[in-house]
Amino acid sequence: MAPTCSFPGDEQTRARFRNNFGTVVALPAWRTSEYRVNKPTWRKMLRENPMRAPYHEAARLQHFQRYFTNANGYTRPQVLNAVLDYGTEQMECVVCGRNPEGPICGQACLNRWYEADGAMGRLQNLCEVRTMPPESRIPGQGLFLREHLPEGLSAGQHVGEYVGELVPLEGPDDALNDAADSNYVYNCNDHFNIDAEKWGNETRFINHHCRANLVAESIVVGGRRIVAFRALRDIAAGEELTVDYGQDFFQKTGELCFCNVSPVPHVPTPPAGTPTPDPSEGDDGDDEADGSDGSYSSWTDQGFSGDEAGQS
Ligand SMILES: C[S@@+](CC[C@H](N)C(=O)[O-])C[C@H]1O[C@@H](n2cnc3c(N)ncnc32)[C@H](O)[C@@H]1O
């Protein structure tokens, strides 16, 4: 299944999300039902999903219920929740050290150190959401590296995890979830998509750039497969963080790219090495947008496989 990602959404949804973003809040009433994956299904998925094997299922479910059972007794199933707490719960946190119940962090905190390929990265706390400046025609908001990080970000560092509701790719509940209609879906692995339409963190505000400075990749952290954004090059404090959405996104949404590789709105070019179906198709000069193969095929369950060369 081709992973997709786009983020339109109505203004109301965006506003609500912005208000809540980064915190664990009650689900809107219409989501407090078994609208999506129910608990038995979730259990079944956990059983069948080897990537979660390092975790003791009972403990995980207990934890899950403790923090994410709503007033009606339904466990919020698919999960922001899972993305928030699974795997991060046993990890050292940059704010509260090894105390996952610390007053600052708590279980909903994303400011946690995590391990990726033997290196430590920091989730969150690095970036902030800002309204895009008027001269950029990119609508809405974008994600920027915080100004108070004079050292900036080094190539290879992770800036955060893509968080949202986990939606199974197939199964009996498939007809019950609305991810198919969502424009906020990233693929995580063979089992789930991550839908940040209603729930997520600031990474949902990462805009596209044809020469992106981040790549989204699927990595295993603490036994849990996640989608994380990694810096392709050194990034200066205050710089906007961008990722290549891939051509599918623009084909699907019919949107044009306003990034500054071209002075005019353009259709993003394919990554280097990709067969071009129709060379006459409108491209306004971005014929070198090959430094960051952030196409979705790059971060399937097999992990990133594209050209990771630094960006200029
Ligand atoms: C993931 S959201 C990014 C955050 C978005 N700016 C917001 O405020 O919600 C993706 C949407 O942002 C806009 N966008 C992101 N990058 C863009 C780009 N390079 N050119 C034009 N629009 C872009 C498009 O409307 C797209 O559907």
UniProtKB/TrEMBL annotation:
InterPro entries cross-referenced by the UniProt entry: EZH1/2-like, SET_dom, SET_dom_sf
SMART domains per record: SET
Keyword Metal-binding: no
Protein's GO biological process: heterochromatin formation
GO cellular component, one term: nucleus
Signal peptide: none
Annotated Acidic residues bias: 280-291
Origin superkingdom: Eukaryota
Entry keyword set: Transcription, Transcription regulation
PROSITE patterns: SET (PS50280)
GO function terms (MF aspect): chromatin binding; histone H3K27 methyltransferase activity
Location of region: Disordered: 268-312
Compositional bias segments (type: Pro residues): 268-278
Protein name per its UniProtKB record: SET domain-containing protein
Lineage: Eukaryota, Fungi, Dikarya, Ascomycota, Pezizomycotina
